[in-house]
Amino acid sequence: MSNRNREANESSLVYTLNFSFRQLMKNINTATPGIVESYQPTVKRAVVRPALRLVKTDGTQIDRAPIANVPVLQPSAGGFMVNLPITPGDAVMLLFSQRGLAAFKKTYQNSTPTASSFFSSTDAVALPGFGGLNVRPATTQGVSVQSENGVDFVSVERGRVTVKTPGAVSIDCGTLDIKASGNINIRGARIGLNDP
Question: 6-10, 85-89, 182-186 — which one is most confidently predicted on average?
Answer without folding.
Answer: 85-89
